[in-house]
Amino acid sequence: MKKQTTEPTAESRVTWEHLEAWVRNKMRKWLQELLDAEVDDLLGRRKSERRPAVDSAPGYRSGYGKPRRLTLSNGTVTLRRPRVRGLAQRFASRLMPLFARRTPEVSALLPELYLHGLALGDFDLALRGLLGDDAPLSTTTVARLKERWHAEYAQWASRPLADLQVVYLWVDGVYVKAGLEKEKAAVLVVLAALRDGRKELVAVVPGHRESTESWSDVLRDLKARGLTTPKLVVGDGHLGIWAGLRNVYPDAQEQRCWNHKILNALDKVPKTRQAEARRLLTEIPYAPTQQDAEQRKAGYQRWCRQQGLEAAAAVLDRDWDRMLTFYSFPREHWVHLRTSNPIESPFAALRLRTDAARRFKKVDNATAVIWKMLLVAQQRFQRLHASELLTEVYHGAAFVDGVRVMEQEWRVAA
Question: How far apart are CA 47 and CA 37, in angstroms?
Fold first, then answer.
């Protein structure tokens, strides 16, 4: 008996060089089958099957629509959406909605790439290399997305905030050099720490040079939308936020950023002495108690006077009480409260984008894009340490040198 041999088919002879195309074709066939199966489920019968005489589902197949390209994160495939006639309502595919050209993951990829430095003109070349030559993506695609971001931003900026249980706020401004503006203008940003430990953006608003009036308008809007009084606000000592805060949330405590204070002090010290000055300065905010911080401050100022640096010594006296507010909050939270780093960190990548290209004709046009990039960064925000202590702070618990004061002790001290 002759031994039967099985010849390999064309599909089984896939080589490494053609693996991507083979996988993409398999994916296309599978998705097309899923689209057809959707119609089978809708009509209760497969293609070419007779309609039952009783209790038959309305509607019938009517071929396919024009070929449509759908871009997924692992490539672009061409599909044909089945058409169904005789229905009371238009057939809506759950797998491939009408007019959909890319998955949500691909749409989310665009601001991610934009955040990390890909210019508009580079999108077409870069994304076709990643998603295939047939990917329906281009510079105009990104432009359309930006138009949609404007609408999404407007909705986000007017959403109610009464449900947010805010404990801390960090505030800062990012400056944008717009093509038609004479000077850089500020986009004012407010980041909240919530009772459950999450960080969430609550405001991204164009303002005028971080002025008191601009910050007051931002805070009034937040209050009008239901944002409750934060326990502590952290920011740069030179911001107009502080006067605005006293206008709108006078009961909120204030913490000046130690990073900015140290830089301001070093500006008054000759470069040859800055290493020693930096060592003495950075020891102050890491003192275990407020009294120790006071002693370290006095030590730094003695050193300054010995060097004849009276101006450098005087820098620490400005807003000194507001430099130590963090001692009245849990020790576990100090790492988050000494500086405005929680809001400065996402700004680092953002400033690279806004400084690298003059893409914005007006500051208002930049705001929605900056907001979208910050939302991308927000997905990677770390939760606050010891989030269970946020509940105690939220309900007004008292802390001295980072340690909870029992209610009876607090009353005696008061």
Answer: 9
Joined tokens for residue 213: 């009036």
pLDDT digits (tens, 9 = 90+) for 265-313: 999 999 999 999 999 999 999 999 999 999 999 999 999 999 999 999 9
Alpha helices by DSSP H, listed for 137-226, are 139-156, 212-224
Judged on CB neighbours under 10 Å (0-12, 13-18, 19+), 336 is buried
Per-residue CA distances from 297 to 70, 122, 281, 302, 312 (Å): 63, 51, 8, 9, 12
Q: Please tell me the distance from the alpha carbon of residue 244 to that of residue 3, in angstroms, as a whole number.
A: 91
153-187 b/e with 16+ CB inside 10 Å = b? beebbeeebeebebbbbbbbbbebebeeeeeebbb
Report residue 318: phi and psi, to 5°: -70, 125
Per-domain residue ranges of the chain: 19-46+60-101, 106-149, 166-400
Count CB neighbours of 227 within 10 A: 22
Please state the length of the chain: 414
